[in-house]
Amino acid sequence: MKTILIVDASESDRRLMSGLLVKHGYEPIAVDTMEAAKDEVAKLPPGAVIVAAMKFVRGTAQELINWQKTEGYGFPVVAIVDNLNPLDIADVMKDGGAVNIIQRPAMDKQLVETVGRYARPGRTMLLLHDELIPRQSEAFAVIERAIRNIAATDVNAVIFGECGSGKEQIAKEIYRLSSRSQKPCTVIEAGGAALVGNHDPANLRSEVLNRMEGYFKKADGGTIIIKNVQLLTFEKQSVLLHILENEHPNVRVICTADPDLRRMVSEKTFRPNLFYILRPVDITVPPLREVTEDIVPLSDYFLTRFAHRREQHKKKLDASAVKALKLHPWPGNVRELKDTVLYAAFHSKTDIISATDLNFSQSEPDADDSLTLRKPQKDKEKIIEAYRRSGSWTGAAKLLGISERALIEQRKKHCIGKKGEPEV
C-alpha cells in the first residue's frame, strides 16, 4: 500500500479524496488539524505523500512544510488551492515548498494523477525474521536436530557459516527452545560500535571490562549472542575470557562466526582457550550453493511473504528461473537469494517470474570458492562441483568460464569421468 496523508478542514472533501484514493489502491489517512497532521507525519512510512489544504484548523500548508523541514522530514506536499491566479500558484510551488497543486474544484479529476507522480511503493524488500525458514535439504534437517539437542543443554555454542547464511536465526532458535527463553537475550555485534556497555569513569578497572560486564549483568539468567565473534579485538577476547573463566556468569553465550575463525585459532590470532570455552558444541551452516534443493522452498517462502505484505497474488518461478537460480553461486547466500527473488517479484509484469526477470549482482568479491580455474591444486574439485551444480558438462563449462573443448582437456588432465566421478 502507498500511504497518503490528507490535511483538510472540509469533512466532505476529506471523504471525497479518501474514496478516490482507496479505489486506486492507496491507503489514505485524513485529519483536519495541525496537531493531528504532525502526529501522523511522524508515523508515515517511506514513500508517502501529503495532500494539504492551503488553510486548515490551526495551520496552513506552508506551516506544515516549514515544520517538516525543521524536524527533518521530507515527504512531498501537494497543496489544495482555491481559485489562485497563476502568479500565486507559482509562489506556492516555488517559495512555499509544495511540489505540486490541485485545484479544489477539480479534485475528482486531478487528485489521483497528481499524487501518483510522487507516491513511492512501500518497502519491497523483506527483512529476514528470527524464525527459521522451512527448507528441504537433509543438511538442514541435521541442523534442526542439532538446534534441539543444544537447546536442551546449557552449553555455549558457535554457529559457523558464510555471510547471509542465517546463522543468527539459528542462534535465536536455540535461545527460544531453551530453558532460558523467559530471560533476556542480548545480541552484540563484535565488530561494531554496539559493543559499548556502561562505564563508570570513577571505577579504576578497565573500561572494556566494565562495559563488557554490563552486558552479562543485563543478560543474567539469559543468553548473549555475539555476532561475528572473529572480529573481537585481542583485548576484548582477553576480557571476555577473564569474565567467563573467573566470574562464571549465569549466561549462555552463543556466537556466530565466519569459517575463517578456525584458521585464526590455529594461527593464534584468536585465543584458543577462549575459542574452546565458547565452542563446546558447534553447528556449521552449508553455503546455499551446496544445498541447491533449498533454493525453491526458500524462494517460495519469500514470494509468499512479499505477496501478503503487498496484498497481491503470489508470483511463481517458472522452470527457466529455477534453473538460473540453481546455477548461480550465491556468495551472499540466503540473504542474496531473498533480495534477488523479491527484486524480480517487484519488477515482473506478470505473475510468472522467468530467468529474464532475475538480476544477479555483477560486483561480488572474488571469493576463494569461485569456480574460476586458476589454482591447479583445486581445479579438480571445482570441475566436479560445476558439473554437480549444472547437471551437464555444457553447463559446467559455462559456470567455469571456459569452452567445452577446454573442459574436455581439463577432465583428461585431472582424470574426471563422464558422470563427474574421479577416475583411478
TrEMBL record:
Keywords: ATP-binding, Nucleotide-binding. Pfam families: AAA_lid_14, Sigma54_activat. InterPro entries: AAA_lid_NorR, CheY-like_superfamily, P-loop_NTPase, Sig_transdc_resp-reg_receiver, Sigma_54_int. Residues 133-346 form the Sigma-54 factor interaction domain. The keyword Cell wall biogenesis/degradation does not apply. SUPFAM superfamilies: CheY-like (SSF52172), P-loop containing nucleoside triphosphate hydrolases (SSF52540). Residues 3-119 form the Response regulatory domain. This is Sigma-54-dependent Fis family transcriptional regulator. It comes from Duncaniella dubosii. The lineage of its organism: Bacteria, Pseudomonadati, Bacteroidota, Bacteroidia, Bacteroidales.
